[in-house]
What does this fold into?
Amino acid sequence: MTETAQIAKTAAPARPREKKRRNVFDSLIGRSALQILAVVGFFLLWEAAVRWGWLSAFLVGQPSGVLRNLIGSIANGSLFTDTGFTIFEAILGFAFGTVIGSVIGLALWYSIFVARLVEPFIAAINSVPKIALAPIIILWFGTGLLSKVALAISLTSIVALITAYQAAKDADKDLQALLFSMGASKQHIFKRVIAPSTLPAIIATFRINIGFALVGAVVGEFISSQHGLGHVIYVASSLYDLNTVWAGLFTLMLVGFLFYHLVEVTERWLLPWKQQQGGTQINV
Amino acid sequence: MSSPKVQLRLNGIRKSFPGKEAATQVLDGLTFDIHERDFVSIIGPSGCGKTTVFNIIAGLVDPDDGVMLYRGQEVESLRGRVGYMMQKDLLFPWRTVLDNVLLGLETKGIDPKRALDTAREYLSTFGLSGFENAYPKALSGGMRQRVALIRTLVLDPDILLLDEPFSALDYQTRLYLEGILMEAVETFHKTVILVTHDIDEAVALSKRVVVLSQRPARVKAVHDIALNEHSPIAARSDPRFSGYFHTLCAELDIQTRKSA
It folds into this structure.
């Protein structure tokens, strides 16, 4: 870094500073302003297109209608109940799925024999589209909370399992050798090398699994449910109530977005040694 | 001088690794002694199995044949009693400097409070206090290797196994770390086995140099290096330095010609 900085200094001494000025919008405020502008512009355009008759409100809905719908469901509290249900299902599915998957994946590190034995089965299970299991899962676990959580677990656990196992296999052999030469036992090596070096990969699966857990919860709700955002969307779409569908979708989007940021905060907290000082992307 | 006491004896060590068609014989009856408080360098053509020797001593690889005697007693390996240091610093990226130094002490099950005191003491001896809470990423190559050296020494191992520990560093840093190593070896009365490609380094630091042949490796020659000084710079200015240097070069050159 310092070297490139020096080269840059010596290579272009005479150029006036102004020429290298950065994009005025390339700051947190600038970017946010552009992003907000894009969102507001999009909705205004949509609203205008519906009002001027270019698009049919029946088929695409209408932002003002979506907003009214959101305000209404906030006022009567149903938005919070439904969102709460979906979040609860997704979080349970995410937590259990990720923990179960990661634990099994890491445990496979202990025995190469067992790992090789079960590898084809894991591949087979992974290749089944888990959503196809939804009808059976509803049959087995009923139409309540349990079936949604089970569906979310079926989606998240396999991702966590494969990632954790792969990361454990890829853990630095030299670090393990070093500890072994110090006289460390297998448990020691697991605790001091395998577990910490797989942690970044496991946290990376959080990001994917948050999405999968929501998929599990919502699909479960589509099939059979009394509550939840999936239920709201499904019922509304069968009634051609596009505004309610959009209200549900935007709420889901917001939930996913918040979860994603929660993962980022968790990552920063759990992996302090991974934090960059300054940007690492080269400014080409 | 009375004959020195043997600390570690390798006798007829053989090792081959399974290959695609035939097994590759790497070590072919390797026999040599390491004395108490010795400093032995092992040099040889690349790929001759120098690292395998270390892996056998450290217990990472089992020999096919041969015995190891430690102070007269037959041992399987010196696992848990060696300080192994490699070309890569192998600092744990998720551990701070202090926690990296503590690694071996934790493994040994030493009382955490005492371990912490020892670790801090070593860090300050080697001029790294103030960096306890830094992650390895933030350190320069030389500093990282210094931390690795401390991590090795803090365990108080019977024998230090140094596998080209400085070969990834620039010359200046290398001389500096060689100096630190020699001081530490003096202070803590350590026995050292150093694998190196660098004849210059071997002559400057060692009391004896073991030359290995091409694979399958046997001990080709053992040279005593009688320099008055083993500090890296003083040794290199000793009038006998270049004599040893050329002898060893010739020894390796002959092998290169044979292989060609």
